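Dear H.,

Thanks for agreeing to be a second pair of eyes. The structure we're designing against is below in token form, covering all 374 positions.
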């Protein structure tokens, strides 16, 4: 049986602590307070609709004059900036973690994962500086990088950073992944002590390795295969071994440090996987250590839930609107995860177990707590 008091308490924490972080800068005598727009955005994300339909349904639930119209909602959202949205999310995360610290705790130091997700963009790309190309040359997308807890912790998202890439239709500067990594790790370090950072192969670069080393954290990153990697794999196979550890030194503009390349059997079938790390790993421990990378599946599942369960729909081509919708969906996802963390404590379940409340169930329960009937 669900602990409804805990669910409602968590929802109130979201309202009192997370919502307070988002300020549009509108006039104090505006017709609607910021919390009305945030309630409407929550409702839109939870029922999976756009601003026009969401506003009508919201007013049906709360009253004709309670919430703003859809076009009013979009105008208010556009008052935010990219910087204020990212900072607001960071502040909301701090508020929520502080508010729940007396009731919950995370195994520390933590392992975090950095990855990039996309939201499809349809339309002409002229004058769209935040739209990036994808692996499919016929498709374009907005891209967002996140850093999240993984491993023994709930996959709580600790930071969001927009990704601006160089594309063949504009004059954007080349994307510098190490800067995104530095920004995200520094944000996460405000909340938790980090031991290891897991990155996708997209972050395979000397600059990223050195940036993480400079930040005082360990890393585990799968490498692209080039001539040197293929030569090393061939030598390993000829020696009859399955595992090898190669010591190396990284030299980058940001400095240098000692690190290792780990050659281990692929978990996806035959072949060898190559990882880069600054952990001190011996050959006998390399294969087991690299299995830690599988913890990244949690962030992939998080993206699926954020987009399916909490992201409101919009056809707007305004980047601030897109960023607001994504950031707020991540915030709602965090609320769900923290609700389950509190519930797991109430039923003496271990962190990392299957959620006590599914995203769909939490949508209904948190929605009723955030938007109570008159």
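And this is the sequence the design step returned. I haven't edited it by hand at all.
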């Amino acid at each position: 049986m669900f602990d409804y008091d805990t669910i409602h308490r968590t929802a109130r924490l979201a309202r009192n602590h997370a919502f307070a972080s988002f300020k549009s800068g509108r006039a104090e005598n505006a017709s609607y307070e910021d919390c009305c727009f945030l309630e409407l955005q929550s409702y839109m994300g939870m029922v999976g609709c756009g601003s026009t339909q969401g506003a009508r349904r919201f007013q049906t639930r709360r009253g004709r004059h309670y919430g703003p119209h859809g076009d009013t909602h979009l105008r208010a959202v556009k008052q935010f900036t990219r910087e204020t949205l990212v900072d607001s999310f960071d502040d909301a995360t701090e508020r929520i973690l502080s508010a729940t610290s007396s009731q919950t705790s995370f195994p520390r130091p933590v392992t975090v994962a950095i990855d990039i997700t996309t939201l499809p963009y349809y339309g002409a790309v002229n004058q769209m500086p935040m739209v990036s190309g994808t692996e499919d040359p016929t498709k374009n997308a907005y891209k967002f990088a996140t850093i999240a807890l993984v491993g023994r912790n709930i996959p709580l998202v600790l930071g969001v950073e927009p990704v601006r890439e160089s594309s063949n239709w504009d004059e954007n500067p080349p994307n510098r992944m190490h800067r995104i990594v530095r920004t995200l790790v520094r944000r996460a370090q405000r909340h938790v002590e980090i031991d290891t950072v897991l990155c996708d192969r997209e972050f395979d670069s000397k600059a990223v390795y050195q940036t993480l080393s400079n930040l005082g954290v360990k890393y585990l990153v799968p490498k692209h295969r080039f001539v040197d990697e293929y030569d090393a794999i061939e030598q390993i196979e000829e020696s009859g071994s399955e595992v090898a550890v190669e010591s190396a030194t990284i030299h980058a503009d940001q400095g240098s440090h000692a690190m290792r390349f780990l050659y281990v059997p692929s978990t996806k079938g035959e072949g060898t996987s190559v990882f880069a790390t600054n952990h001190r790993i011996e050959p006998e421990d390399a294969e087991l250590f690299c299995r830690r990378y599988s913890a990244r599946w949690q962030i992939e599942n998080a993206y699926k839930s954020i987009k399916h369960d909490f992201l409101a729909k919009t056809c707007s081509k305004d980047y601030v609107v897109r960023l607001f919708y994504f950031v707020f969906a991540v915030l709602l996802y965090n609320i769900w995860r923290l609700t389950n963390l509190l519930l797991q404590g109430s039923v003496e379940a271990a962190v990392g177990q299957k959620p006590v409340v599914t995203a769909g169930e939490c949508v209904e329960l948190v929605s009723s707590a955030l938007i109570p009937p008159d």
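Two observations from my side: The CA atoms of residues 180 and 333 lie 22 Å apart. The chain has twelve helices and nine strands.

Warmly,
E.
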